[in-house]
């Protein structure tokens, strides 16, 4: 019954063993921004247990405004690059593929160390000048070059959940009147510049969402037509795959159609799409029928799992071997374990 989840697929030139993706999850295990051997073991364990594509935790681009966090990994030359080389080598040796999620926190950066957050229009920090926009675009480009050298198979641009790129997409935080604000298409101009700066190095996945960490009801697009304006700009800039972040994958993105957000991204752009959001948190995989129907209908191509993989590194193998009864249901405490 789950064979469609386990069938090989080629997406954006990437040959994947199956449709399963590990969703990006921040774990705070990289002191000084450098991933350790434990980080390599953690990702290798998911790859050798049947996750076709891993997306790393959010990884900071090399600019001081990206984040105040010291144990979130960075994508910078030197020690971090060498650490990532160990990670990609371990995943590849296990037969897996791995993308890195490139991240700038925007207004969510704490000024704890005296550095002010950068934002589109001053909501929660300093309003970026066009020169500062160029600096951050260049930082993403440099991070993609480091990722390519470190052996990654793809990059994922984090344009979701209310961080910097999403703050440009969201009208509540983008009040600019220059080329980077106004219509949905113009709000997408900065994320599009970032995509242009990273493309050519590696296939580009773009993660976006309607909801924000601080506002679950927020929306970047109030209709499919508005979403089309945004995603067309991003696709034209070079987005190869869209990763549509929802809290519950089965929820329709807009009234009048059962399509979820990934389904709309695929429908509007023709690009492959990844769905995510409470795909399973328990051993019984509720809504498996809905999940498989979406794959069969071409609503999305890949399925990402987050929290269930924290306590179950071998989830992919348990699925493959028909042993889901052995899955440990997700509990909040799994966010504190690292294995
Ligand atoms: C501990 C934790 C850390 C997360 N960190 C990130 C992150 O760095 N980047 C991101 O885009 N999403 C992040 N997310 C969201 C997940 O990628 C995923 O979309 C979410 O957990 C929903 O999937 P799930 O219901 O299968 O857990 C995180 C989620 C959790 C639980």
Q: How does this model look, in words?
A:
With 339 residues, this protein is of the alpha/beta class. It has a single domain, classed as TIM Barrel (Alpha-Beta Barrel). It is 32% helix and 17% strand. The chain contains 11 helices and 12 strands. The protein has helices at residues 37-48, 79-93, 130-149, 164-169, 184-187, 189-198, 224-237, 261-269, 288-296, 308-311, 315-320, and strands at residues 9-11, 14-16, 20-22, 53-60, 97-103, 118-119, 126-127, 154-161, 204-212, 241-245, 273-276, 302-305. The strands form 3 sheets. It has an 8-stranded parallel β-barrel with strand order 3-4-5-8-9-10-11-12, surrounded by 5 helices. A two-stranded antiparallel ribbon has the order 1-2. The model has no long low-confidence stretch (mean pLDDT 98). The site of flavin mononucleotide has 21 residues, from strand 4 and strand 8. This is 12-oxophytodienoate reductase.
Strand order of the largest sheet: 3-4-5-8-9-10-11-12
Order of helices and strands: EEEHEHEEEHEHHHEHEHEHEHH
What is the molecular shape? globular
Strand content: 15-25%
- CATH C-level name: Alpha Beta
- Small ligands present: flavin mononucleotide
Radius of gyration, taken over Cα atoms and rounded to an integer in Å: 19 Å
Q: Helicity level, as a percent range?
A: 25-40%
- The total of helices stands at 11
CATH topology name: TIM Barrel
CATH A-level architecture: Alpha-Beta Barrel
Number of domains: 1
CATH homologous superfamily classification: Aldolase class I
What is the CA–CA distance across the termini? 29 Å
Uncertain runs with pLDDT below 50, 5 residues or more? none
Largest beta-sheet details: 8 strands, parallel, barrel
């Amino acid at each position: 019954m789950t064979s469609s989840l386990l069938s090989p697929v080629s997406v954006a030139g990437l040959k994947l063993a199956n449709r399963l993706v590990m969703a990006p999850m921040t774990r705070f295990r990289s002191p000084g921004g450098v991933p350790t051997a434990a980080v390599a073991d953690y990702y290798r364990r998911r790859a050798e247990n049947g996750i076709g594509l891993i997306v790393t935790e959010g990884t900071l681009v090399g600019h001081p405004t990206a984040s105040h966090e010291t144990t979130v990994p960075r994508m910078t030359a030197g020690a971090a690059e060498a650490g990532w080389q160990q990670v990609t080598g371990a995943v590849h040796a296990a037969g897996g593929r791995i993308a890195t999620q490139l991240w700038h926190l925007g207004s969510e950066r704490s000024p704890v160390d005296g550095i002010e957050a950068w934002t589109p229009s001053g909501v929660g920090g300093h309003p970026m000048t066009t020169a500062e926009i160029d600096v951050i675009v260049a930082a993403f480009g440099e991070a993609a070059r480091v990722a390519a050298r470190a052996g990654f198979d793809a990059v994922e641009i984090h344009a979701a959940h209310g961080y910097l790129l999403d703050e440009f997409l969201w009208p509540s935080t983008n009040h600019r009147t220059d080329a980077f604000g106004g219509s949905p298409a113009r709000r997408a101009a900065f994320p599009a510049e970032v995509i242009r700066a990273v493309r050519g190095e590696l296939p580009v996945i773009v993660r976006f969402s309607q909801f924000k960490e601080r506002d679950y009801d927020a929306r970047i697009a109030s209709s499919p037509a508005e979403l089309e304006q945004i995603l067309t700009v991003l696709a034209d800039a070079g987005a190869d795959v869209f990763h549509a972040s929802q809290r519950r994958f089965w929820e329709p993105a807009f009234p009048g159609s059962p399509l979820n957000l990934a389904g709309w991204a695929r429908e509007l752009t023709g690009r492959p799409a990844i769905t995510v959001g409470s795909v399973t948190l328990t051993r019984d995989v509720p809504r498996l029928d809905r999940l498989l129907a979406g794959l069969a209908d071409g609503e999305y191509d890949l399925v990402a799992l987050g929290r269930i993989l924290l306590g179950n590194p071998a989830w992919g193998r348990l699925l493959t071997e028909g042993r889901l009864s052995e899955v440990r249901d997700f509990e909040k405490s799994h966010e504190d374990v690292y294995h």
